[in-house]
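Narrative of accomplishments. A recurring question from our advisory board has been how the design workflow behaves on a single, concrete structure rather than in aggregate. To address it, we present the structure tokens for one chain from the evaluation set, followed by the sequence designed for it. No filtering or post-editing was applied between the two.
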């Protein structure tokens, strides 16, 4: 969220951007981290996580998020093929004030394919400045 803790609303959705599965990146990732994975199966789960992580990191660069406390409830639904455009979004599920200068934001993150189908999702807990 490009907002301080007190300005974030439950139900608010943030766009995390989009990226497509690159053939060269897939081949390099498989060679380095998933030996034996067939490229025609699409991006392996670990690469899908890395794609989400990159979109999240780039989108949140200027946010008042000071720390990521946890990433859990990870779900992989499919392995996107080369060329598939993936979109990231974050939905605020809850928040809890911790003290006068910070609060915790609970969010669901989704990675969707071009047809709007879920590829990956997870829940996060992050500290935001007030």
């Amino acid at each position: 969220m490009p907002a301080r803790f007190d300005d974030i609303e439950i139900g608010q959705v943030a766009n995390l951007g989009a990226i497509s599965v690159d053939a060269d990146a897939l081949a390099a990732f498989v060679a380095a981290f998933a030996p034996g994975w067939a490229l025609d199966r699409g991006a392996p789960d670990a690469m899908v996580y890395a794609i989400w992580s990159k979109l999240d990191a780039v989108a949140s660069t200027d946010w008042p998020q000071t720390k990521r406390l946890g990433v859990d409830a990870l779900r992989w639904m499919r392995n996107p093929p080369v060329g598939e455009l993936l979109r990231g979004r974050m939905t605020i599920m809850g928040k809890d004030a911790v003290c006068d200068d910070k609060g915790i934001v609970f969010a669901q993150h989704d990675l969707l394919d071009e047809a709007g189908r879920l590829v990956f999702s997870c829940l996060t807990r992050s500290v935001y400045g007030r």
